[in-house]
Design a protein that fits this description.
The chain has six helices and no strands. By secondary structure, the protein is mainly alpha-helical.
């Protein structure tokens, strides 16, 4: 086991110095023969050892590439799902906002019609079964902006006129 670890360390050292993987394996084999580390085995099965080591290092490279590709794929899928969920959430919020705006504009139109008939805010609230405070705010905006529904709506939302 020591010999194998020594051998692998030699290969990595050569690679760290900028030698290609294949050249590093060949140099490490030569070093093991020179140092007498499993030399008989390497002399007898040198070609098989080279092939085995090339296969091992190729497998390590392949696993690293697969890991990196998997990581990139996972990030991409995560972003797609996040965008899809965000879009769905945004659509739901937009629909809710639109519905609320439509209801408020409808109430403003009703109040404007009744104010043009000189009805009091109290009677309007009672007739429309609406909150007196909300009807009072619409009436105040009507007085400030005139009978224009959009101006009243913006006044209520942004305090403009």
């Amino acid at each position: 086991m020591y010999e194998y670890a020594w051998f692998i360390e030699q290969v990595r050292r050569y690679q760290g110095e900028g030698t290609t993987r294949d050249k590093a394996v060949v140099l490490a084999i030569k070093d093991s023969i020179r140092e007498g580390i499993f030399a008989d085995f390497v002399r007898k099965h040198g070609t098989e050892v080279e092939n085995m080591l090339f296969t091992q290092f190729n497998m390590d490279d392949a696993l690293e590439v697969r890991y990196e590709e998997g990581l990139e794929d996972g990030i991409e899928r995560g972003m797609e799902r996040g965008m899809e969920r965000g879009l769905q959430r945004g659509l739901a919020q937009g629909m809710e906002h639109g519905r609320a705006e439509g209801e408020q504009r409808h109430l403003i139109r009703q109040v404007c019609g009744k104010l043009q008939k000189n009805e009091s805010p109290e009677k309007i609230a009672e007739d429309l079964l609406a909150d007196r405070e909300e009807i009072g705010q619409i009436c105040a905006a009507y007085e400030a902006c005139g009978p224009e529904e959009t101006a009243i709506y913006h006044r209520l939302k942004e305090k403009l006129c």
